[in-house]
Amino acid sequence: MTRAAILDVALDLASRDGLEGLTIGLLADRMNMSKSGVFAHFGSREDLQLEVVKLYHRRFEQEVFYPSVKEPRGLPRLRAMFARWVKRVSVEIASGCIYISGAVEYDDRPGPIREELVSMVAAWQGALLRCAHQATECGHLKADTDAQQLVYEMYGLILALHHDARFLRIPGSLERASVGFERLIENYKA
Amino acid sequence: MTRAAILDVALDLASRDGLEGLTIGLLADRMNMSKSGVFAHFGSREDLQLEVVKLYHRRFEQEVFYPSVKEPRGLPRLRAMFARWVKRVSVEIASGCIYISGAVEYDDRPGPIREELVSMVAAWQGALLRCAHQATECGHLKADTDAQQLVYEMYGLILALHHDARFLRIPGSLERASVGFERLIENYKA
DNA sequence: TGGATAATAGTACGAGCGTTCGCAATTCTT
DNA sequence: AAGAATTGCGAACGCTCGTACTATTATCCA
């Protein structure tokens, strides 16, 4: 299916230039197709963007979420989630992360794309939250652990990784994310 | 000076729509001026963007940095820096923060604007780093404190604040940033 | 083999962008 | 008061964008 191939390249372009920077003309060039040929596969540019977001979400789930839930519930699963997340972002240092760039692009731009992005990021944070709760229920973390706070700080470590490595290009950011996570867990450990 | 008034409005627009979203036509509308009238004050759009970035930096310094260095060096100063920083970002939840949106917009777009942004953010991180070093020298923090790691995590807390409050619109993010900072300091305290 | 069906190309349009240029109005200088 | 310099306006240019419409080519089924 040509459509799938187009979406694949579109995801690549959107990762680099942002969802708003994704343009049909450039996409057609990369595909060696005409603009109208590419356009015909999607009803509108917004539809194309939405499909790209959904594709990214599927990739993220497949690479980070699903393999992690195979780990034993509680702290090991939470650790796996963070480790795979870091690994994913460390690859995206070269290409860009749509969750993060999308969060900035659509923080004040209403519409279906923003809604799609918000619901996906919220779903991921929800998964982390459930996992953190289970970790306290299993007795891996202290009983009075504030799971929301834990997820908040995990997200901060990832955002800082993206910022320092991709924008400022500071080496060693990867290790800093891991060190931060270990310190975080050490604080909440039972 | 009309130029200063234009820059003021331009900063507002760039905060909302990003530096790349800043357009001369919209700016002219907001100023009740013609496009060419606005344009004449700057040699090019890029110059306008650069001036906006510099203006933002001056505001940031004035509001966050300068008042903080009046505090006693070491931990009190570091605390003041973070507190004022949080306060500033909490205001920017409504308007947007150019350091953060700029980091995403220009992480892969070479040119003078990226360079300006990088040098400014690096300067701010440098100031935090020096302050953290002084805090260990003063004996406020443990002697083996990794200042880079500390700054990294502080930055993460701020990024998470911006993300959760402005994009996801989760209430209580402000408190989470403060709680995270306190836990951070508690870890590194002498 | 021929005719419906889908996929791609080509062209054109209208809008918005940054930018240029010439002209009017205002302000400053002497 | 006259001339120079600044400041703003309006129209136009060339470009790129998303999109619509029409043809052409390929595919597949009877």
From TrEMBL, chains A, B:
SUPFAM superfamilies recorded: Homeodomain-like (SSF46689), Tetracyclin repressor-like, C-terminal domain (SSF48498)
Keywords (A to Z) from UniProt: DNA-binding, Transcription, Transcription regulation
Name of the protein: AcrR family transcriptional regulator
InterPro entries tied to this protein: Homeodomain-like_sf, HTH_TetR, Tet_transcr_reg_TetR-rel_C_sf, TetR_C
Gene3D superfamilies membership: Homeodomain-like, Tetracycline Repressor, domain 2
Domain HTH tetR-type, residue spans: 1-60
Known DNA-binding region: 23-42
Domain of life assignment: Bacteria
Pfam family, one: TetR_C_13
Molecular function (Gene Ontology), one example: DNA binding
